[in-house]
Amino acid sequence: MNMYKWLEELKNSPIKKSMPILSFPGVQLMGITVKDLISSAENQARAMQLISERVPSLASVSLMDLSVEAECFGAETVFSDNEVPTVTGRLVTSLQQAQELAVPKVGEKRTGLYINAIERAVKLITDRPVFAGVIGSFSLAGRLVDVTEAMIYCYEEPEMMKTVLEKCTDFLIDYIAAYKKAGANGVVIAEPLTGLLSPDLAAEFSEPYISRIISTCQSEDFLVLYHNFGNSAISIIDSILRTGAKVLHFGNAIDMREMLKHVPEDIVVMGNIDPAGEFRNGTPESMNKAVKTLLADCSVYKNFVISSGCDIPPASKWENIDAYFNAIEEFYAGKM
Fold it and tell me: At what angle do helices 111-124 and 41-54 cross, to 10 degrees?
């Protein structure tokens, strides 16, 4: 599929389908646990298929599991039946440890399983693009040095941080290449930890590494979508734009109307219905209002595509997810 053409058609379409980051609620459709989902390529592909059959999404998006890559490096990961896995502890606390940190081979730990899931999914889902999910360089580095310490290290141990960032980026380029080989039409690269950084730090510790990933991996048949759900995304938008991403996806912590003022119309902007507040804990009525309000505010921009603000939690109510898509359909029907 020519993904550049796909983007142009999307921007020029008066009625735009949505592309929420919707995968984990598939456990409810299958009657399995989150642990069952993350442990089986077959389950992941089947969940993506069932979701694509249920909702008229613009694309199918795989699991946004931000523990996979850190676990592959050796980070301790905590699993549970009902929650997305989390990383604990730290692997790197000094420059020497950073220099000694081994870059794992793609396919180790659960990375091979997730690649296989995409390989299966693209054979099951043929009516829309399929995107894999990966973590960004700074967000991965943060999980290796400790998320709460990452910003401090940018000031106090910049050489250590950059050493880790280089290794994370090398790994991610290879990992994304494996997804491309498996048949994915692109990846959603999540760089949420960059939301903690000032514009200057974002330009130094995130931008160059994401730019290298995008310039290396993005092509006519493969898109790299940039995702940041931090509340400082607007303040670092110039740095984000310089990464070369053709699609930007933002969380509900920002004012999407304000963000759209800062983004050129040739860049697609997606977001930002609250995953917890609406998908997980809202009602069909509150969802209907939230969707129509956001579309009324932002659909005047031809490059805006409504989406969830981030990954939709596993226990989100399907009545709210269905209400989300129904509200989009109703909004555009009223415009015709």
Answer: 40
* Cβ–Cβ under 8 Å, residues 270 and 247: yes
Tokens of 191: 């760089």
Alpha carbons 44 and 47: distance in angstroms, whole number: 5
Contacts for 293 with CB less than 8 Å, ≥ 6 apart: none
Number of neighbours of residue 214 by Cβ within 10 angstroms? 19
Tokens coding 325: 């898509």
CA dihedral 211, 215, 218, 224 (to 10 degrees): 0
Question: How many Å apart are CA 328 and CA 19, to the nearest integer?
Answer: 11
Residue 103's pLDDT band, with cuts at 50, 70 and 90, is very high
Question: What is the distance between the alpha carbons of residues 251 and 233, in angstroms, rounded to a whole number?
Answer: 9
At 325, the amino acid letter reads F
Radius of gyration of the chain (CA): 19
Mean pLDDT of 148-170: 96
**pLDDT value, residue 232:** 87
Dump pLDDT digits (tens) for 37-46: 999 999 999 9
Instruction: Report the alpha-carbon distance of residue 187 to residue 189 in Å, rounded.
Output: 6
In the structure encoding, which two tokens stand for residue 145, read together?
Answer: 């040095």
Q: Kindly give, in sequence order, each residue whose CB lies less than 8 Å from that of residue 166, ignoring residues fewer than 6 positions away.
A: 209
pTM: 0.96
- DSSP-based three-state secondary structure for 130: strand
Q: Is 10 helix (H, G, I), strand (E, B) or coil?
A: helix
Strands 76-78 and 86-88: antiparallel
User: Would you tell me the crossing angle of helices 158-182 and 207-217 to the nearest 10 degrees?
Assistant: 20
